[in-house]
């Protein structure tokens, strides 16, 4: 089937995830209009169309969405109170596909939907499932697990390369999916391909770059970067139960420390019944023709991150 160049309206194109998604779209030949808040001072990316609009004004949004087949959102903290008018405007403008800012681990588990850090994404998904899927507009969400590069840089999937420390959760042996930012972009392009556009309508698409555990990554980082993390037995690797992490996170939040919210990500990844370890069964990798990293690929990524951090 021949490729189709689509007109994509994109909110959130200048962020950590947005930049590689924009690169994937333009490299695939799609025409992108970057939509920004009227008051935004962030320069729009070069080489693409851009429009500054009042994101609360239905008529302005309908006007900018007209002529676009796809509305993509990659803002980090979506909420239905902010996004409903944007979604409704996209539907009114006859946008064919909405791709919400989900990009998480598993939003199909009832337990995950109850986690506080998932409130906004859950509200948006439920609105799409209950209302938008009954219109001529369809939706597709991308569920990718942890951002692999960020996990290695900041140490939230086991080894912290910069600090040369490692932390395990519940022993560090549970295997979850992690995805590189370019691979998430590759999944987006596959969804927009005519070969997969219809089969991904009104569905969550799960993907991953690598199946990893905290122990596995710590061993590989030690091998590639020459870091001696020690062991749990000698006390240099901290082992924290996910429940203890939640308790500590809630204490931080009570004291105004929003970093406590990170604990809920661990619950989503490693908690029983939250779906984080179900990624392989849910994966669309084979259907979409997405790669799965080999151990050598993972070592190469670790080397790149270590060099970026000045460790190698």
Notable characteristics:
312 residues, 14 helices, seven-stranded parallel beta sheet, alpha/beta, 13 strands
Written overview of the protein:
The protein is α/β, with parallel strands linked by helices and 312 residues long. It contains 14 helices and 13 strands. Strand 1, helix 1 (18-27) and strand 2 (31-37) form a beta-alpha-beta unit. It starts with 6 loop residues before the first strand and ends with a helix. Strands 3-2-1-4-5-6-11 form a 7-stranded parallel β-sheet, with helices on both faces. It has a 3-stranded mixed β-sheet with strand order 7-10-12. It has a 3-stranded mixed β-sheet with strand order 8-9-13.
Model regions low in confidence, pLDDT < 50 over at least 5 residues: none
Shape: globular
Which structural class should the secondary elements be placed in?
Answer: alpha/beta
In percent, how helical is the residue content?
40-55%
Number of alpha- plus pi-helical segments: 14
Radius of gyration, in angstroms, nearest whole number: 20 Å
Strand tally is 13
- Tell me the distance between the termini: 45 Å
Output mean pLDDT: 96
Percent in strands: 15-25%
Biggest beta sheet summary: 7 strands, parallel
Instruction: Write down the secondary-structure element order.
Output: EHEEHEHEHHEEHEEEHHEEHEHHHHH
């Amino acid at each position: 089937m021949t490729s189709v160049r689509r007109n994509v309206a994109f909110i959130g194109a200048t962020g950590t995830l947005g930049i590689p998604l924009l690169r994937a779209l333009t490299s695939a030949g799609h025409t992108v209009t970057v939509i920004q808040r009227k008051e935004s001072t962030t320069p729009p990316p070069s080489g693409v169309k851009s429009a500054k609009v009042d994101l609360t004004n239905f008529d302005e949004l309908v006007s900018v969405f007209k002529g676009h087949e796809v509305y993509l959102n990659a803002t980090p903290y979506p909420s239905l109170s902010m996004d409903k008018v944007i979604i409704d405007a996209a539907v009114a403008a006859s946008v064919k596909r909405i791709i919400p800012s989900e990009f998480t681990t598993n939003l199909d588990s009832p337990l995950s939907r109850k986690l506080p850090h998932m409130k906004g994404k859950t509200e948006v998904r439920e609105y799409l499932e209950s209302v938008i899927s009954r219109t001529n507009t369809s939706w597709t969400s991308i569920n990718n697990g942890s951002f692999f590069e960020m996990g290695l840089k900041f140490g939230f999937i086991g080894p912290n390369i910069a600090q040369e420390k490692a932390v395990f959760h519940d022993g560090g042996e549970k295997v979850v999916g992690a995805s590189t930012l370019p691979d998430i972009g590759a999944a987006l392009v596959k969804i927009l391909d005519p070969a997969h556009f219809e089969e991904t309508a009104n569905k969550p698409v799960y993907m991953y770059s690598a199946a990893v555990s905290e122990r596995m990554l710590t061993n590989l980082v030690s091998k590639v970067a020459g870091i001696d993390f020690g062991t749990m037995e000698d006390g240099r690797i901290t082992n924290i139960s996910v429940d203890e992490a939640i308790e500590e996170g809630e204490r931080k939040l009570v004291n105004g420390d929003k970093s406590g919210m990170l604990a809920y990500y661990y619950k989503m990844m490693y908690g029983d019944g939250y779906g984080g370890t179900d990624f392989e069964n849910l994966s669309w990798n084979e259907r979409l023709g997405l790669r799965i990293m080999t151990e050598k690929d993972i070592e190469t990524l670790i080397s790149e991150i270590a060099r970026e951090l000045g460790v190698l």
